[in-house]
Amino acid sequence: MLNKFHVFIGIFFAASINAKSLPTKEQLESNEEYRLIKEHKMIPCVFIDKNTDYALQNKCFHISKRLFEITKNKTFLAGVAKGYYKGYGVDQNVKKGLKLYEEIAHSDCAVAVDVQDILGIYYGAKDSPVLDKVKEEYWVKKAAKNGSELSQYSYARMLKNQGKLNDAIYWYKKAAQNGSLSAKYKLAALFREGYPMQINRRQAYQLLHEAAEQGYAPAFHELSFFYDEDGDKEKTEFWHAKFINSDVFKKMQSGMNPDEALIEVFKEQKKKEYIAEVQKEMEEIEKQSSKQK
Fold it and tell me: Which of the following CATH numbers is that of domain 147-245: 3.40.1190.20, 1.20.1300.10, 1.25.40.10, 3.40.50.720?
């Protein structure tokens, strides 16, 4: 379901200021690195997309570029790669963006696996300017083996489409064990459709409830089917109502397909969480700075 999901998910490229050694307000104002990190966070640059004002795209691109020059941290190089590949804030140069992404993906830096996720998507998207199914599978498989729940889920889908059901189930389960809500939902849905899943109905219910408890709207819909099959009218209506009142369903009603709606809702939620976290961090800096005076 979420083939495009990790294009967004994998790009949380904000450098975190260590809470145990927060800088003072004066340090933020006098030190270029701190000032740029703060600005990168406060805009916030990690959520820049095609709908963002070009001037802001450009600002984020140059902040990322300068931060990489100062820190050599490939977290920020990923922001530069994104700018080139997408043409966000700079003249689009897909080839240059890909070269930078692959440099990061082949490294052992903190965001290498995230970038492997991204490359798998970029090489596999239907409208991709670099469509290459061989490279798509290479990067998805590499990220999956390196522990990415997102690519584990995508690799499972890929294997299922290739008719390799047992291998697909293995990776769906691996992704679910690593916390993928999409994989939990998919395992239960496949079970209900009659696939040999090596799980029972109680376990399928459990997977769906785990996903539903974290707000995964497709799980609401699937639970309504499960309870309907088991003749529980009250719970069927409860989960159906929960689904049609979800933000995902509302966006679908406005014309988005399920994937787009799910991505958009997730993005909105993560942006709120991110901004709240940054504000809290900056408040802590202000508080510590006041104590030092």
Answer: 1.25.40.10
